[in-house]
Design goal:
The chain is α/β, with parallel strands linked by helices. The chain folds into 2 domains: 194 residues, Luciferase-like domain (TIM Barrel), CATH 3.20.20.30; 67 residues, no CATH class. Helices cover 46% and strands 16% of the residues. The chain is built from 13 helices and 12 strands. It has an 8-stranded parallel β-barrel, surrounded by 7 helices. The chain has a two-stranded antiparallel ribbon with strand order 6-7. The protein starts with a strand and ends with a helix. This is LLM class flavin-dependent oxidoreductase. Keywords: Oxidoreductase. It comes from Dactylosporangium maewongense. It holds the Pfam family Bac_luciferase.
Length: 335
């Protein structure tokens, strides 16, 4: 059975546990471990992952592109690349308007153009901060004018791969145009990738398509699907994803989840409102053999599949057990 490369997003109730899971993923044969950004800082977590691993790639998946200045993001990338010995993938995404404005106090306007210019600025600093030469970018939304500055540490690389997260067609197209890779949303089926993403992405040689996947492995397939249902319910409660659910003939099922949410169920407690078909079509859930077959379905479409255990509405001990099963599956498939 041919499968894409296997990436992993480690979970932990503590940072120590998260790092231990990353080390185990490296030993199991994972190609890259990714540090998300929501409950922890992606660059800080990635630094810890880089320091505690040896050969596995390390990515920020994803760091918020607008919440930090391009200059600071570039310095973080240079530090992470040095710390990891050249293993960094800088994953960036915009986040949504409310998060940027209300959580981070940063402007939200023309996000596609802003991300384009942000990436250009980061690349200029990565390439030239050590030279002492002026660094200039005169964009419509992002400007750099750096004079009298020289970073006194030689960079390990003057080009660090940038992976962009994107859901909407314009952001997906931007990733294909300027990125070194693309990272999908957590619910991205092979059929959706083939029909809605790849035609807009138009990946070129060397470009890495990374599918993020909620993965629940259990000898009891019903238990696996029940574990993943909370993740599907969380996203189904958001109207932004209506097109995704409609594409999979799940519009009516999504409406049922939204009604449950409006009826008072919390976003993390919607698993019971999720129809089995939603889990089957949008997650990698089932027995080890079933999940392996679902991963194989991405062959020829994606270079890698990033696996992560479901967490929504689940106690830590259940998440821990699900993560252990993913790590065992990675080891089995990597032999």
């Amino acid at each position: 059975m041919t499968i894409p490369a296997l990436h992993f997003q480690p979970w932990g109730a503590t940072l120590r546990e998260q790092l231990d899971a990353a080390r185990r993923a490296e030993a199991a044969g994972a190609a890259v471990v990714w540090a998300p950004e929501l409950h922890r800082s992606a660059p800080v977590t990635a630094a810890a992952l880089a320091a505690r691993t040896h050969t596995v790639g390390v990515g920020t998946g994803i760091a918020l592109a607008f919440a930090r200045s391009p200059f600071l993001t570039a310095l973080s990338a240079l530090d992470l690349d040095e710390l990891s010995g050249g293993r960094l993938r800088l994953g960036l995404g915009t986040g949504v308007q409310r998060l940027n404005e209300d959580w981070h106090g940063v402007a939200w306007s023309r996000p596609v153009q802003r991300l384009r210019e942000t990436v250009a600025a980061i690349r200029l600093v990565v390439a030239g901060a050590h030279t002492g030469e002026p660094v200039d970018l005169d964009g419509d939304l992002v400007r750099l004018r750096i004079r009298g500055y020289r970073r006194p540490y030689p960079p390990l690389r003057t080009e660090i791969p940038v992976y962009l997260a994107g859901v909407g067609p314009a952001m997906v197209a931007l990733a294909g145009e300027i990125g070194d890779g693309w990272i999908s949303h957590e619910l991205c089926s092979p059929s959706y990738l083939s029909s809605h993403v790849l035609p807009r992405l138009r990946p070129r040689p060397g470009f890495e398509v990374v599918v993020s996947a909620c993965c629940a492995v259990d000898d009891d397939p019903a238990a696996a699907r029940a574990a993943a249902a909370g993740v599907v319910g969380f996203y189904a409660s958001v109207r932004t994803y209506a097109d995704l659910f409609a594409f999979h003939d799940l519009a009516e099922e999504q409406r049922g989840v939204i009604e449950a949410f409006r009826g008072g169920l919390p976003a993390d407690g919607l698993a019971g409102a999720v129809a089995p078909a939603m889990v089957d079509r949008l997650t990698l859930s089932g027995t080890p053999d079933e999940v392996a077959s679902r991963i194989a379905a991405y062959s020829g479409l994606a270079a890698a599949v990033k696996l992560s255990p479901p967490t929504h509405g689940l106690p830590a001990e259940r998440i821990r057990a699900l993560q252990d099963r993913i790590l065992r599956l990675i080891e089995e498939l990597s032999r």
